[in-house]
Amino acid sequence: MKYHFPIFFRMTLVLGSSLLVFSSAHALSLDTSSDKTITADRIEFDRKTQSIKTAGDTKMETSDGKRMTLLDAYMDNRGAHAGGQRVEVWLGTRTHFSAASVEKQDNITLAQSVVYTACGDCDTNVNAWEVSADRMRHDADARMMEFYNAVFWAYDVPIFWSPYLSYPDPSIKRKSGFLIPYVNTTNNMGTQVNLPLYIVVSDTHDFTFTPGYLTAENPIWQLEHRLNAHHSSFRTTGSYTSNRAGNDRWHVFNEDLIELGEHARAKLFLQRASDKTYLQHYGFYDAQPFLDSGARMEVFADSGYVRTDAHVFQELRVMPGVQSSSISGDILPNIHGVYQTAPVYGDTYVSFMGDMIGIYNSETAGNMQRMLGSATVTSPWTIWGGQRVTLAASSRYDFYYFNNTDMLDGEVGFSGSRARFLPSGYAQWALPLVNNERRDWTHVIEPRVRYTAMRVLETPAFANIDSSGSVLSDATLFSDNRLSGYDLWVNGDYADYGLGWSAFSRGGISVSGFAGQTYDFSKPKDLDPNSGYHNGGSDFVGRLSAEYKDWFMINNRARFANSNLALRHIESTARLGKRNYVEAGYIIAVQLDDALTENSRNNEIVGGFGLGLTERWNLRTRTIYNITDERIQRQNAGLYYEHPCYMIGFEYLRDGAIRTNLDDESENYVGNTTFKLSFSLKLVEGKK
Questions:
Q1: 633 near 604, Cβ under 8 Å?
Q2: Confidence (pTM)
Q3: What proportion of the chain, given as a percentage, has pLDDT over 90?
Q4: Does the pLDDT at position 111 exceed 60?
Q5: Residue 511's pLDDT band (cuts 50, 70, 90)
Q6: Can you tell me the distance from the alpha carbon of 174 to that of 156, in angstroms, rounded to the nearest whole number?
Q7: Is the dihedral of CA 76, 81, 85, 86 positive or negative?
Q8: 622, 636 contact by CB (below 8 A)
């Protein structure tokens, strides 16, 4: 029995028990999960067959925002058979499909006079790209659309024609095939054209293989592998080339992360290159001084943490006039653990630390092992007037074993064991003073003092495994050990003191500053003369910064000589603006005459800006200039077009680095000038 709805006015039919959805083929189907709404001039519902027919203009909408307009539609109860004339489908903000007619039979949809785009409504009266075809066939099982007699258009301009063109439907997140090529031009290898091939193995496993053709060098081959498994991930990148000089050059980077339950995880990492300058020469270099390969295991709980790791290094630094440069050795292995108790009295707690490390030096065939353990009692208190007092006492015992190792006291090839006991403690006082009488501003002034006592009992001359010295700054004040690592320790008492100030307003302005100094009661040992530490008062350090919301920032950090307040070091960075911005930075490092440095004064300046030329065109540039050497260290500039559906970039990069290896001239490197043209599609669909 049929029910005919009168045609005197437009009717709306709401079926709460079933939902009209659009398949990836942009046709009709039924789903019983939610509601659908059908509006038409005339609607016929056959209760026996549970089918619907409409006459005239018809509009169908789903609860998730998809919508369709068509003329004279029909649909059965399962959505297996459906169709209509003059079809328009919107699957989101940008994905649009139109056809003169559509017929759906089970999983196959046929459409005539088709226009498809995933970049609709991005520009006024024109699509950035679209595909038109006489006929389109969609297979819902294969999730592929096939266009016959197809034309690809860009801004209403025909780009190419093909008798047949296949395209994955919007339900497919990834599909094997060639990606958009990108082009680089360098001053020593010519133009490089890269054609990436994307290979999908599964939803969690894929490859990208990129052959690169160079006009002034032999081809280079790149491979990237990605795999996400259950509670683990695997990433590998690499490249290979046999250059015109007959040398095989390559690199491989790998990082694997494996979750081992809620309290443990493992990490495997590999970084290797054929030589010291390959990464920089071919554009894979990221300013790293060495490559690190090894493994790490971490076990953690609420109050404890244990890490075991091993490292094998490859040195990348090449110093002019130096025959070789290498780090001290490989770490095989390092075991580090910490544990902190619950408060035992008030807020007082006890923490334990253990560390064991082995070092092997392949150049000298020497090795060393260090084992240390420490226990620390820390007791923080808040007393009258808001004063904050922290007391801490620590004891540490170190044991070393050396085999054919050069020691710090000048002894060469020492073999044997040595040990030391390190008791230490500190008392710290701070008083935050808050002033918020003015409702629009809050000021906090905090004087702070810390006295540290350290004693190295039975002070033997050890080798240095992991300490690289220290340079005085506001960040090193009030630290447990101002020397990095565990091997070098200050053997004496010293006091840190400073004054911090901060202010912030309801309008989004924040300002902070700090000034301080440290005082050594005995002459510090094992410190570079440029460190800023002295027998007595150290140099003065300070920090000043200001911010306003997210469009203004300035940071300054400086050190001044304790004798005459002469400038020893300054770092300044500033940025003004968001999309349109200006940034600047300046670094000065003054070296003392008795330091082993090439220049007594190192200066570097950084400057850049960003400019929004139009709503979509942006210009960004940045330059690092070494004033001491009177040369550009690094410079880049880019012109970018940000479209809702794609991005085009024209980039310029100048690398001013010069690296010379007297052992192997093939590893020499003189900075490149690179031009890069890039194009990328944005495939993220927004909601209507």
A1: yes
A2: 0.76
A3: 43
A4: yes
A5: very high
A6: 27
A7: positive
A8: yes
